[in-house]
Structures are given as C-alpha cells and as structure tokens.
Design goal:
The structure is a single chain. By secondary structure, the protein is an alpha/beta fold. Helices cover about 55% and strands about 10% of the residues. It has a six-stranded mixed sheet, with helices on both faces. Strands 4-6-8-9 form a four-stranded mixed sheet. A hairpin with a 2-residue loop joins strand 1 and strand 2. Helix 6 packs across helix 7. The protein starts with about 25 loop residues before the first strand and ends with a helix. InterPro entries: ClpP/crotonase-like_dom_sf, Enoyl-CoA_hyd/isom_CS, Enoyl-CoA_hydra/iso, Enoyl-CoA_hydra_C. GO terms for molecular function: lyase activity.
Length: about 375
C-alpha cells in the first residue's frame, strides 16, 4: 500500500549567479561575494597552491567566463592565508627538455590574464608568493598585500630565471637597480616592502583585511560604467608599451570614442544634476551660516548692553551699603565682657568714670524747689 504522506515540495529560490560560479573546479573556488564582484580562490592546499598546467587551465577558463559575464564588473584573485601561490610546480618542470618547453610554448598560457581579460583583476596576496606566484600576482591590474606576505623571484637559486614576466614587471614597478638586486640574489621581500616600493597599491595588517579590502575596491569599480572601466584599463596598460607622446595620442582617441557611449551621456547628465543639487545646498548653507552669524551678533550686543546697565547701577548700591558696615564695625569695636567679668565688683576707676558720665548727663540749668534747696545748702557748706 502506498503511503498517504507525500513529501512537500519547497519553492526554489533562484539567484542570479555567474555562469563561472556554477561550474565546478578541482583547483579553484569561484564565488560572487559582492554585487558585480567575482572572487577566484586558488585551492591546492597540499602543495601551497603551487602552479601547474591543470590549475592554469582552470584559471584561464574561469577568467574567460567571467570576462564575458555582463553581471561581473571586477575580479579578485587570491589564495590561502599560508600561500597565495608558492611558485611553479618543480615536478612538472624538472624533466622538460628545451624542445619540449619551446615546442609547447610552456607557461605562455599564464599570460592570458594580461591579454585576454579586459575587466579589472585585483590580486589579494597573503602568505608566500614566490617565483611564478609572484609573477601571477604582478599580472593583476592592482595588487593588495598583507604586511606578513613573502614575495620574491628565487629562480636564480634553481639555475634559471623568471619566465612569466617577472624580470619585466618587477623592473617597471621598483626600478632597475632594486629589481636587479632581487633577481640576481633571489632574496625575498615582505608585503610592507612591496607597498613601500610601489609594487603593491595597499598593505593590510591581516590576511582577512587584505581580501576584504580587495573586495571593497572591486565592488566600487563594478559600480562604474563597464565601458569606461574597460577603456581606462586599456589606456593605462598602453602606457607600459608606448612613449609619452604616442601614449597621450592613444589616450585622446579613446577619450573621444567614449562620447558615443550611452553610459557617458547618462553619467554626465547625472553628474550635472548632482552639481546642481550641490549648488543649491551650498546656497542654503551660506544663507544658514549668515543667519547664525546675525543671531550671534545680536546676542553679543544684548549681552554687552546688559553688562553696561549692571555697571551703571553698581555705584548707587555701593553708597547705601556703608551704614550696615559701620554698624557692624561699631559692634565689632565694642568691648565684650568675658564670663568671668560679669559677676566681679566694679573697680574704683570704673566707678569714677561712671560718676563722670552721670554728672555729664545731668541738665546744666536745673529747675525746681529741690534743686534750689540743694544749691543753697551747697553754697553754705562752701562758705
């Protein structure tokens, strides 16, 4: 008997993934972590992402698909935290003869990223990027590094030289003297030094910040007009092949061609509208600033007039105050009897002074019968 319980069918969520991200690779991971941005991660962990033909075939395939995908505006290429790419796989090279290498154009396909891919590529370098790994990182249009990354061209130690553009790109980036020193000695250099010498555009403290910084820049680039970005990449790369005069002529021709682009018309109209709004905001800001300035001036005037009025009334108040102060001074100057003096008998000097005060308080011309009698008695006594 068939079961009555039927498994419910959930609605499918359709997401606009790139065609390259839907493909399964053995040595790569491809994703779209941000709008318009593709992330390619080299994934050969046991060999520290050492470069060999199967990996390069997959890389070129993914790059070509992303290059023709209208939803992708920029690409980020990275490895693991331990190694961007530790170099070329020695096992693949050690048994090759001159006829094999020359006849099969060995590692020529490595340069597809610089010739066939028209969209900007940013390399996010962490860990080791040596030999072919360093050359692959330099093929990108922009290089970001973490401070702890280790880069270099150590081929001289294996009895050979860089073969994928290392001697050319490194020299253009850091100058002949420094490139000659690095290539002839095989010495490695840090990510911080790569940024200081101009080989890398930015240096980050951690690998996570490096990858995130590359993705953020790629997202910003992807938000621009794709036709303008493509043209900008082309003219900058031409500067490496042409003299200054020829380069400027080429740039001007490409600049003129963009006047036939719809993106140019749309972006210029939008920019004109933004400028108009900015002018309005600037005018309003100036009016607001003038209003604030007038209010501050008015408040300052009111404070000044109040301060002047207070100073004018202050002297009158000062004339009325001495009376209580004088009373206070008198109270302070009056002798204060101590508790021991209150019960003691007055001295002779004190009694004499009191008698004088009593006589002075009597009227100078006394009247009345008692006063006359006392006066006659006093005169008789004196006689």
């Amino acid at each position: 008997m068939a079961s009555r319980f039927v498994k419910a069918a959930l609605p499918r969520v359709v997401r606009p993934y790139s065609s390259a991200t839907s493909h399964t690779y053995e040595h790569l991971k491809v994703s779209t972590p941000k709008p318009g941005v593709a992330l390619i991660t080299l994934h050969r962990p046991r060999a520290l992402n050492a470069l060999f033909t199967p990996l390069l075939v997959e890389l070129n395939s993914a790059l070509h698909k992303l290059n023709t995908d209208a939803s992708i505006g920029a690409i980020v290429l990275t490895g693991s935290e331990k190694a961007f790419a530790a170099g070329a796989d020695i096992k693949e090279m050690k048994d090759k003869s001159f006829s094999d290498a020359y006849g099969t154009d060995f590692i020529e396909m490595w340069s597809d990223m610089t010739t066939a891919v028209k969209k900007p590529v940013i390399s996010a370098v962490n860990g080791y990027a040596l030999g072919g790994g360093c050359e692959l990182a330099m093929m990108a249009d922009i290089m970001y590094v973490s401070a702890g990354a280790t880069l270099g061209q150590p081929e001289i130690k294996l009895g050979t030289i860089p073969g994928a553009g290392g001697s050319q790109r490194l020299t253009r980036a850091v100058g002949k003297a420094k490139a000659m020193e690095l290539i002839l000695t095989g010495d490695s250099f840090s990510g911080k030094e790569a940024a200081d010498w101009g080989l890398a555009a930015k240096v980050f403290d951690t690998p996570e910040q490096c990858v995130e910084g590359a993705l953020s820049t790629a997202e910003k680039i992807a938000s621009m007009s794709q036709i303008a970005v493509k043209a900008a990449k082309e003219v900058v790369n031409k500067s490496q092949d042409l003299g200054i005069r020829e380069g400027v002529d080429f740039e001007r021709r490409v600049f003129h061609s963009l006047f036939g682009s719809k993106d140019q018309k749309i972006e210029e109209s939008r920019y004109e509208e933004v400028q108009r709004i900015q002018v309005k905001l600037l005018t309003v800001s100036k009016d607001a600033a003038e209003l604030v300035k007038n209010l501050e001036t008015s408040l300052n005037k009111n404070q000044t007039s109040s301060f002047t009025s207070a100073n004018m009334t202050a002297p009158n108040a000062g004339r009325q105050s001495p009376e209580p102060e004088e009373q206070s001074d008198k109270q302070q100057g009056a002798p204060q009897a101590s508790p021991n003096d209150q019960g003691a008998a007055p001295s002779k000097d004190h009694a004499k002074d009191a008698s004088k005060e009593t006589l002075q308080s009597l009227p100078s011309n006394p009247t009345g019968p008692m006063d006359k009698a006392a006066e006659e008695k006093t005169s008789k006594t004196m006689n």
